[in-house]
Amino acid sequence: MPGDSIEVSKVGKVFGSVRALNDVSLSVSPGGVLGLLGHNGAGKSTLINILSGVLEPTTGTATVAGFDVVSQASRVRRRIGVAGQYVALDEQISGRDNLVLIARLMGARRKEAVARTGELLERFGMTGAADRAVRTYSGGMRRRIDLAASIVGAPEVLFLDEPTAGLDPESRAELWAIVHRLTEEGVTVLLTTQYLEEADRLSDQVVLLSRGHVVASGSPSELKRGVGRRKASLGFNERERFSAARDEVRRMGLVADIGEANFDIDITIASPRDLGAVLHALEERNLGIDRLRLFEPSLEDVYLAHVSTR
Ligand SMILES: Nc1ncnc2c1ncn2[C@@H]1O[C@H](COP(=O)(O)OP(=O)(O)OP(=O)(O)O)[C@@H](O)[C@H]1O
Predict the structure, then answer these.
(1) Which of 51, 197, 254, 288 has its CA 20 to 30 A from that of 27?
(2) Could you identify the atom of ligand 1 that is nearest to the CA of residue 42?
(3) Where does the ABC transporter domain start and stop, copy by copy (predicted)?
(4) Structural domains in the chain?
């Protein structure tokens, strides 16, 4: 739509005989967060490279911050930040010196560069480590300084390519908080990740890529609602009733998986009606359950439903 921060229309990318992207379309409104999910080689980095002006699409068009990524690439570059797996920082100099250097390269005067750096270090909780060489940083600190480096120029649109890959849960949560704050300030974010929980926490829209195709898109809750299959666990207090119920459930053939632990029968049902039928049948045979748990589909279920069927 006009006014969107990122607009991708039927983008394809071919490398020799490899079709990395096929007819990919998506859009992100200002201040939105789009999570791009997909397996290794799905085409996520290729799309980020096209949107950040590093690669040209083979077919289709894309705009970022209102500018065409091919014909207006330098304007695009001035309005974006890119952080991720391969951001080049000088490992031998301190985090502070890296940020000052980037600000100077972007045209800031020395005083401004120093002030902006101080502000970012403070915000990212990095003041303690600011004057140590980047090579001495932990994985979490390294990711934070990468992210700080990507926003030195106060970008309108931020591309985060697997920003928390390999981080421990605590460092991941810290980074999520930082990204969340940036989005509250109106920065538009396109995030690639293999962590479904990350996409669920941060994104208001998710696009699922598989082998270069968009196979599903929508808000995390829309996508979860679209997964028909749900897990339920039927619990019993005695082995005898549990065993008889398990045989009955198998016989009904309505259920895809049966797992057994602690006299629980874990079933996958295609609809609430199937669950009703199972409970009714058990009740009729005096095999009534003692406990029932229903599990909401996760983004992982969404992912498996779309990706494993292709
Ligand atoms: N420069 C290139 N030359 C040839 N093939 C490439 C090039 N860049 C990417 N590809 C291929 O394009 C496809 C998509 O790769 P891409 O790196 O975009 O996937 P990805 O989803 O980012 O994967 P990962 O999660 O592993 O980073 C892969 O088959 C990859 O091998």
Answers:
(1) 197
(2) 21
(3) 6-236
(4) 6-225 (3.40.50.300), 230-307 (3.30.70.790)
